[in-house]
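Lay summary. Proteins are chains of building blocks that fold into shapes, and those shapes determine what they do. In this project we predict the shape from the chain. Here is one chain we studied, written as its sequence of building blocks.
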Amino acid sequence: MFEQVQEIMKKRDPQKTNPAITASPSLLLGLIKCGSCGASMTRETGTGKKGLSYSYYNCKTFLRQGKKSCPGHRIPRELLERQILDHLSNKIFTTERVKKLLTGLYKAYKEAKKSNAENLFQLTEQLKNLQKRLNNQYNAIEEGIVEKDDVKERIRELKKQKLQAETLIEQTRQRFQIPMHYYTDRHIKTFQSQLKRTFKSKNSSLTKNYLNTLVKRITVTGNNVHIEGRIQGALEIMEQKETAASHHNNGVLTAVNKWLPGQDSNLRHGG
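And here is the predicted shape, written in a compact code that computers can read:
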């Protein structure tokens, strides 16, 4: 857990999602893997005798190279998606499980916060140094040592660096804060209701966004489906929900760049 929290501290951009995956009606593309060969599973379509179209998930290796390379896993798309959404909302993110996830994160954050104290100290010292250098420039102008126009670019650059340092310090402190009301049954039930409402809606874009926040990987082996979750994802959605309420942005989940793998779960698909 401690090592996982350390990953959060690494400076990196939010994960980029393939535009083709985002635009696809298949909710699990980019997440679902073949347990036999490790390849991604993709959408396979077909037409029945009566002219009806069918949509499945199947292994890319099987579709490209045949059974010699992988036995494949053809699963009805809508059936698997519904089973996974129901499993996440009804079995994984129960009140007790969410409380345990938050408690685990809190303990891990406390440990990571201790080790991060040195980094915070260095950032604070850097901020002090930048402020000192700014003051030196102002004093030099007041004393007539330099002209204001001669150092205005330097002052602008120092102000920019100072703002960046202040932002980093604030972000570092906030990373280890979990509001206590997140642990209440009322807040957790609000999160659960939002999850179920989103998963039952016809907004595939938002549903897919939630899935990519909550799930790291889905592995299909025969009739078994293994879900590897992101513990941090639940916290991120809670945070976004509060932000949406305060800024009236209709609850759209924005890109998240703090990732923490965690809760695993297994289910059996009925396909």
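What the prediction tells us: Residues 1-23, 243-264 have pLDDT under 50 and may be disordered.
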